[in-house]
Design a protein that fits this description.
Elements lengths: L1 H10 L3 E5 L31 H6 L1 H17 L4 H11 L3 E6 L5 H5 L4 E3 L2 E8 L5 E3 H8 L16 E5 L10 H11 L2 E5 L11 H7 L3 E5 L12 E3 L3 H12 L4
Parallel strand pairs: 1-2, 1-7, 2-3, 7-8, 8-9
Antiparallel strand pairs: 4-5, 4-6
Helix pairs in contact: 1-9
The protein binds carba-nicotinamide-adenine-dinucleotide.
Length: 250
């Protein structure tokens, strides 16, 4: 099956990658839904990632954020991130659509990255127009500081520029993703459970057009039976073998 995936990638010239938290677990950042290591094995954490949960309990959100922040700050791209950056560099991949907020695609060298759920690089006050960098937010989250971190101008809680469940996507992100999906010849899904909408509908767009679909994910997804290839294996192994099969130089 991996050989078939390599063949399809070789034959494609306008690839879109759709990535989720699974591309970054090997970098030390936990995902949501992996059964053993996912953050949601503790269901009480789910609500903290909703707009309602944040508004109700910003301190709880940041208590978890304080635990997770070091893994985001020290994470380095994985082979899967580098693999996609190389495909773009070769002119085969037109963009990465990502649900991730960790910035690792850009760190690996990907230029065209559509961030569907925002990113951690910046934040903003929940009340006034003041904006913050990740470094400023991290300083305010250090041990000894009271949580939630608050705005220097109006003392309201500040928040990262990520999309919480129940919030709108960043302006233009959906339209830009759809334009690329309408034109691609292959959608390569990596490390996503494909359950968060509207992203979870994107494979359907490609299947409707009879473009090809490859899914690489440890757990099954709702699209496995419709995909040209569906590989239930780790992205580290799949990326290593695809790099080899495609003759991609480091
Ligand atoms: P998810 O629902 O947690 O699914 C991740 C999927 O990846 C699971 O089905 C796993 O089986 C699979 N997986 C985990 N590790 C590997 C691996 N090494 N190789 C292959 N497959 C693996 O995450 P989704 O991205 O689908 O859901 C969307 C959420 C998760 C978005 O809102 C993100 O913002 C959010 N998220 C992002 C990050 C990040 O930026 N790194 C981390 C945690 C959550």
């Amino acid at each position: 099956m991996l050989e078939k995936a390599a063949k399809i990638i070789k034959e494609s010239s306008s690839i879109v990658a759709l990535t989720g938290a699974g591309v970054s677990t090997a970098a030390g950042i936990p995902d949501f839904r992996s059964p053993e290591s996912g953050l949601w094995k503790d269901p009480s954490k789910m609500v903290l990632f909703t707009a309602f949960g944040f508004a109700l309990d910003p301190k709880g959100f940041y208590e978890l954020g304080r635990q997770l922040l070091p893994s985001f700050l020290k994470a380095e791209p994985t082979l899967a991130h580098y693999f996609l950056a190389k495909l773009e560099h070769q002119g085969k991949l037109r963009c990465v659509i990502t649900q991730n907020i960790d910035g690792l695609h850009q760190k690996a060298g990907s230029k065209k990255v559509i961030e569907m759920h925002g990113n951690l690089r910046t934040g903003r006050c929940t009340n006034c127009p003041t904006e913050y960098t990740l470094e400023e937010m991290a300083d305010k989250m250090n041990q000894g500081h009271e949580l939630p971190p608050t705005c220097q101008d109006c003392q309201s809680p500040i928040r990262p520029n990520i999309v919480l469940f129940g919030e709108d996507l960043p302006t233009g992100a959906y339209e830009e993703a759809m334009e690329n999906l309408e034109d691609c010849d292959l959608l390569l899904v990596m490390g996503s459970s494909l359950v968060v909408y509207p992203v979870a509908d994107m494979p359907r767009v490609v299947l409707r057009r009879h473009a090809r679909l490859i899914i690489i994910n440890l757990q099954p997804t709702q699209y496995d039976s419709s995909a040209d290839v569906s590989l239930h294996m780790s992205l580290e192994e799949a990326s290593r073998r695809l790099v080899e099969a495609l003759g991609i130089k480091p």
